[in-house]
Design goal:
- Belongs to the zinc-containing alcohol dehydrogenase family.
- This is Zinc-binding dehydrogenase.
- This protein has 351 residues and is α/β, with parallel strands linked by helices.
- It folds into two domains: 2-143 and 315-349, Quinone Oxidoreductase, Chain A, domain 1 (Alpha-Beta Complex), CATH 3.90.180.10; 150-288, NAD(P)-binding Rossmann-like Domain (Rossmann fold, 3-Layer(aba) Sandwich), CATH 3.40.50.720.
- Helices cover 29% and strands 25% of the residues.
- The chain has 13 helices and 17 strands.
- α5 (144-157) packs across α6 and α5 packs across α11 (300-309).
- The protein is globular and about 60 Å long.
Length: 351
């Protein structure tokens, strides 16, 4: 099959590799139709990472079933599907209570099977596949992973009616966080330095938008909340900006409020000075959110699929650019230069 492999310099080489085979009776083989680029992918872009060299990556995908194991009962060849790529070892104590998103072997397992979106075929257990309704496009479905990350953070925060919510970062995660908070009946201020992203946030229901590259975000938040501060602040930027955005988030939240960290950290120890006395004295909670799994008895990806299929979440407005697999490097360059390209979610047609 054709696949994009990471190179030593962190770009991609499109080449022919072996197609995966079904290793177990309960596995499904699918043809990937569309994959996406998210913030995690961009943090690895053009970085020399020997552990990823010659590997297939990517974890936002949808496609069609081509083959099923003999124990598979819910799927058949030709079925349209969206594939969950958060997959633990299924034997540890966290997996046993459906918290596989914090499984110690999460990345070892997921990258061996389902987290290989930038290839023509992917294989995984039946439990990681969801039927995709005909009226939901493959491109829209590729955003379900992103929205599931948002839903997990939303559950952590416990967003309630009439709360004042601040979202820092108007990429796909931030715009998903905005939509979920609006669905819960909250008012949302969202901040980002890219004007095209803020314009889209307005279309999706943001009560206020702030260019935090030139405006005083804390002052704007205080005006938005009557001087109290936000009930919840979602940090949706992450990466190299975290030493700036996390302290900023703690200055925007009210006493007794919560900061939910959704943006990903880079590897290694990172020094981030915070006003710990003020945070403690104000009982401000800093909550870490990682990927997604289950909420009570409900798989969060399944919940997002229902929300998207019923029209309660809008994915189509986030899709700004499209490329085929042969031009995956162009796709990443476009996604990384959003200040100039206006990119939000970049979709890659695989096959």
């Amino acid at each position: 099959m054709k696949a994009a492999l990471k190179t030593a310099g962190g770009r991609f080489e499109v080449t022919e590799v072996e197609r995966p085979i079904i290793p177990s009776r309960d596995f499904v083989l699918a043809r990937v139709r569309v994959a996406g680029i998210c913030g995690t992918d961009l943090r690895h872009w053009q970085k020399a990472e020997p552990e990823l060299e010659c590997h297939i990556v990517g974890h936002e995908l949808a496609g069609e079933v081509v083959e099923v194991g003999e124990a598979v009962s819910r799927f058949k060849p030709g079925d349209r599907v969206v594939i969950e790529t958060v997959m633990g070892d299924d034997v540890c104590e966290y997996c046993k209570i459906q918290r596989y998103n914090i499984c110690e072997h999460l990345y070892d397992v997921r990258t061996k099977y389902v987290s290989r979106a930038y290839g023509e075929f992917v294989c995984g257990p039946e439990s990681k596949f969801y039927h995709l309704p005909d009226h939901v496009s493959f491109e829209e479905a590729a955003l379900i992973d992103t929205f599931s990350v948002c839903l997990h953070a939303h559950h952590h925060a416990g967003v309630e009616l009439n709360q004042k919510i601040v979202v820092i970062g108007a990429g796909p995660i931030g715009l998903g966080q905005l939509q979920l908070a609006r669905l819960a009946g909250a008012d949302v201020l969202i901040a980002d330095p890219v004007q095209s992203s803020l314009d889209l946030a307005r279309e999706l229901g943001a009560a206020e938008t702030v260019d935090n590259g030139s405006d005083d975000l804390v002052a704007r938040v205080m005006a938005f909340t009557g001087g109290r501060g936000a009930d919840v602040v979602f940090e949706c930027v992450g990466g190299e900006h975290m030493p700036e955005t996390l302290p900023l988030a703690t200055r925007c939240v009210r006493r007794g409020g919560a900061v939910v960290v959704v943006g990903g950290f880079d590897k290694g120890e990172i020094a981030i000075p915070l006003e710990w006395q003020r945070i403690q004295m104000s009982e401000i909670r800093i909550l870490m959110s990682a990927s997604f799994a289950y909420h009570d008895i409900y798989p969060e990806q399944g919940t997002v699929l229902d929300l998207l299929a019923s029209g309660k979440l809008n994915a189509s407005k986030l899709i700004t650019h499209r490329f085929d697999l042969d031009h995956i490097n162009d796709a990443f360059e476009t996604a990384a230069a959003k200040e100039h390209t206006g990119a939000v979610f970049v979709a890659i047609t695989i096959s």
